[in-house]
């Protein structure tokens, strides 16, 4: 009978990041530096958007939500990985594993939806500028944020409930550095082929459809920019849109590999490498991508430095 030899213990074992790697400690220290940079960058960007009145616009409001999601996303995996590495322990309770899966998918789903809505914001700003303030009012921005979170929570609840109820009959070692759904499905003694179709359908809803809507928005934006006579307006629009497209490609690209291709085609090492890029590198790169090419954010940062110069604080 299926599940007859299901193991009685409820804890899981996390194999850790690249357990067969010779100098994994060096990689861990690099990830710690990336984590600190991601936390610092996203907090600074979130702080600047909320204190500078010139950044109180729909685009920057949505960007502040993206910073919050990125900050929470990287914090849902990296701290536990660091604790396990430095303590030498690899166990994680069933409850902690379920919580980690829930927050990971909630944040990931919310980010997919939010990136789509940010593209719509840019579409309205470029293609319908005279009605931008009316269409993208504060109430609409709040509704966009709520829709992003609700969509992420609903998808995450379904994934978490199914994953945490899978029977594990043999080893409870998860070949990953955090509780990831595909890795748990691989150690289950239950046939998960049907649910893999559900995952594929979810992937279409949260990855392919958003990507299609984003590309449609930017197609209209590109056509509108071509007819713009002002070179300054054209360059500003292209700079903002290129930053957003870069973030979209960095985030949705790995998601396509993880959730839109058959699980048996991935090795644990490949899944971990993609997860590091998606959950560690991307949250660090996002504030850099949006700030380095954004004169408004740079101007707000310089304004804060002028008000609170480091030299005066040290003297």
From TrEMBL:
It is found in: Cell membrane. Gene3D superfamilies: Rhodopsin 7-helix transmembrane proteins. It is a multi-pass membrane protein. Keywords: Cell membrane, G-protein coupled receptor, Membrane, Olfaction, Receptor, Sensory transduction, Transducer, Transmembrane, Transmembrane helix. CDD domains: 7tmA_OR2T-like. Residues 41-290 form the G-protein coupled receptors family 1 profile domain. The chain crosses the membrane at residues 26-51, 58-78, 98-120, 140-162, 197-225, 237-260, 272-292. Its main location: membrane. InterPro entries: GPCR_Rhodpsn (IPR000276), GPCR_Rhodpsn_7TM (IPR017452), Olfact_rcpt (IPR000725). Putative odorant or sperm cell receptor. Belongs to the G-protein coupled receptor 1 family. This is Olfactory receptor. It comes from Acinonyx jubatus.
């Amino acid at each position: 009978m299926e599940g007859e030899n299901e193991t009685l213990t409820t804890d899981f074992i996390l194999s850790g990041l690249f357990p067969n790697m010779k100098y994994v400690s060096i990689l861990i220290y690099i990830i710690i530096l990336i984590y600190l940079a991601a936390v610092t960058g996203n907090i600074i960007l979130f702080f600047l958007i909320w204190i500078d009145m010139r950044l109180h616009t729909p685009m920057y409001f949505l960007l502040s939500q993206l910073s919050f999601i990125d900050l929470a996303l990287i914090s849902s995996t990296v701290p536990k990985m660091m604790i396990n590495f430095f303590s030498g322990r690899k166990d994680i309770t069933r409850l902690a594993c379920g919580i980690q899966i829930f927050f990971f998918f909630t944040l990931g789903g919310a980010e997919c939806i939010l990136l789509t809505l940010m593209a719509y914001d840019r579409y309205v700003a470029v293609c319908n500028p005279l009605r931008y303030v009316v269409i993208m009012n504060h109430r609409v921005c709040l509704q966009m944020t709520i829709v992003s979170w609700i969509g992420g929570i609903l998808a995450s609840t379904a994934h978490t409930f199914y994953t945490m109820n899978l029977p594990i009959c043999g080893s409870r070692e998860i070949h990953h550095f955090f509780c990831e759904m595909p890795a748990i499905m691989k150690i289950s003694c239950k046939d998960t082929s049907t649910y893999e179709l559900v995952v594929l359908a979810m992937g279409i809803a949260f990855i392919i459809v958003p990507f299609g809507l984003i590309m449609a928005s930017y197609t209209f934006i590109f056509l509108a920019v071509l007819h713009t006579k002002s070179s300054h307006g054209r360059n500003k629009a292209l700079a903002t849109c290129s930053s957003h497209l870069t973030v979209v490609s960095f985030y949705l690209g790995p998601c396509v590999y993880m959730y839109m291709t058959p699980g048996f085609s991935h090795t644990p090492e490949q899944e971990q490498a993609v997860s590091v890029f998606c959950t560690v590198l991307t949250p660090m790169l996002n504030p850099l991508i949006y700030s380095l090419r954004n004169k408004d954010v740079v101007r707000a940062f310089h304004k804060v430095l002028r008000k609170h110069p480091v030299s005066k604080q040290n003297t």
